[in-house]
């Protein structure tokens, strides 16, 4: 339920209203939009008499949110959300475009430091790298675990780049205290225990779309995190499973403009996992930029043929540099067109 509060409302009256709603077991959220205060009410709103609420002098209008996802809905918060990562200098969403790059998995100290320096020089703002790796086969490289996180933190100290890495279960979260952003991978998009735990954190969460998940299911997973109190959620489209076999997955770029309509949350695109082939990463990265994505997540390895994980979809640092240049060109056109249409 959403209540539009009149601009001249006494803050004490508004505080009294939110307190009354909270006593009914509901959660309340206040946002500002075009001079109005928007009061979001989440929970069993059947306990609220809409006629009574509408009749209050401070209330301009009341309406129910029809979507099952409330907190991440565009109706709940009309303005785009911008999420700060690290010390706050890096932002994703709300007009801020972010380039995330690095290897699929952290392998050695030398590898992650070299890649971190290379992607930073090419314009990346966040360093990615897997410490814990969910693999289809139990015999494949599973990541370095806690040691991998230590190496990522060292790369952060060397370059100043904020870091993102994937958590696979709640028991691992104490190791992520110094990690700037936590990734929830496609296989864990509906790991509700994990979603609830990261919902208690005050740290940005990048939520990847499940392999066969609908957009509604994806947004409901984001709702799990936000309902726990953590509103810093970034959606990541990484391809879905279809009948196609020439690519690893099918990159659903229609999700970007669709989710822009449905939700205020930022959305980034991962063309590396979506395609599984390095020669497709550049074209899909440019297409994602053109259709309005708030950022890209691209795998970069200094020696892809010998990578321990997903070398076939990884760009070399030189290839990433050239792709990043093209991304900036497309981004400039998109930004200019947006300014003209406004």
In the predicted model, the low-confidence regions spanning at least 5 consecutive residues are: none
Structural class: alpha/beta
Say how many strands there are.
14
Q: What's the N-to-C terminus distance?
A: 29 Å
Largest sheet: 8 strands, parallel, barrel
Count the DSSP helices: 10
Please tell me what the overall shape is.
globular
Molecular structure report:
The protein is an alpha/beta fold and 342 residues long. The protein has helices at 11-23, 50-54, 109-121, 146-159, 192-199, 215-227, 255-262, 271-275, 278-290, 317-341; strands at residues 2-5, 27-33, 36-42, 59-63, 83-85, 90-92, 98-102, 126-128, 163-166, 181-184, 205-208, 233-237, 267-269, 295-299. Strands 7-8-9-10-11-12-13-14 form an eight-stranded parallel β-barrel, surrounded by five helices. Helix 3 packs parallel to helix 4. It is globular, with a radius of gyration of 21 Å. It starts with a strand and ends with a helix. The mean pLDDT is 93.
Quickly list its features:
alpha/beta, single chain, eight-stranded parallel β-barrel, 34% helix, 342 residues, globular
Summarize the structure.
By secondary structure, this protein is α/β, with parallel strands linked by helices. It has helices at 11-23, 50-54, 109-121, 146-159, 192-199, 215-227, 255-262, 271-275, 278-290, 317-341, and strands at 2-5, 27-33, 36-42, 59-63, 83-85, 90-92, 98-102, 126-128, 163-166, 181-184, 205-208, 233-237, 267-269, 295-299.
Topology:
Layout: E1 2-5, H1 11-23, E2 27-33, E3 36-42, H2 50-54, E4 59-63, E5 83-85, E6 90-92, E7 98-102, H3 109-121, E8 126-128, H4 146-159, E9 163-166, E10 181-184, H5 192-199, E11 205-208, H6 215-227, E12 233-237, H7 255-262, E13 267-269, H8 271-275, H9 278-290, E14 295-299, H10 317-341
Parallel strand pairs: 7-8, 7-14, 8-9, 9-10, 10-11, 11-12, 12-13, 13-14
Antiparallel strand pairs: 1-3, 1-4, 2-3, 5-6
